[in-house]
Design brief:
With 201 residues, this protein is mostly beta strands. It has no helices and 18 strands.
Length: 201
């Protein structure tokens, strides 16, 4: 089977590095996402050995040499340092699909994480009602904030199921932008005190 070499796919451009001009390009095509599958005949030959030389500069990604299907035959594209077509793009090597059709190598964009879902707060198991008034708050020293986005949660008297316990103050990252912390408190209702838990709103 006769093999041919082809130029870079798409609008690839060579840079003026004389020693490696045949290997250096800006992208190997600019297609984002897999191309349509191609029906080919036979496996491609064993790839030749390659030497990965030093990157010509920052931002380059090494794309290993690979075969492509051109005009009814396999053609070898040498490995080269390339600049991805856009930030977050990465190269996906060619591969066979489940139907043994060939999917050429292409660029993919790394999935960006979506916004976190709004927090779901479970309702309290039941109200805490006691007859004794809560002790005075304990004076605490506010430690330095870990970041400008943290919010200081002041210490408070909580309830562990049997008695009041002191929960120390702490820095906490809000669950979403512009969230406001509503402090826990003991509400005096009639002759009793009801514990209202703190929450973000």
């Amino acid at each position: 089977m006769k093999l041919i070499q082809i130029p870079l796919l798409g609008a690839a451009l060579c840079l003026p590095y004389a020693a490696h001009a045949q290997h250096i390009g800006i992208g190997i095509g600019f297609r984002i996402g897999p191309p349509p599958p191609v029906r080919v005949w036979g496996e491609f030959p064993p790839p030749p050995q390659e030497v990965v030389y030093a990157a010509p500069g920052p931002g380059y990604v090494w794309v290993a040499g690979h075969y492509v299907w051109v005009n009814g035959q396999w053609a070898w594209t040498p490995g080269q340092w390339v600049i991805p077509p856009q930030p977050g793009a990465y190269w996906v090597a060619g591969a066979w699909d489940p139907n043994r059709n060939w999917i050429e190598g292409h660029w993919q964009i790394a999935a960006q994480p979506g916004p976190p879902p709004p927090p779901q707060y479970a309702p309290p198991a039941g109200e805490v009602v006691v007859t004794e008034a809560p002790p005075p708050l304990i004076a605490e020293v506010m430690t330095p904030a870990p970041s400008p986005y943290h919010v200081w949660i002041r210490g408070y008297w909580g309830w562990d199921g049997h008695r009041r316990v002191w929960t120390r103050g702490r820095w906490e990252m809000p669950p979403r932008p512009h969230a406001v912390w509503v402090e826990p408190r003991w509400e005096h209702r009639g002759g009793s005190y009801v514990f209202v838990r703190g929450y973000w709103r």
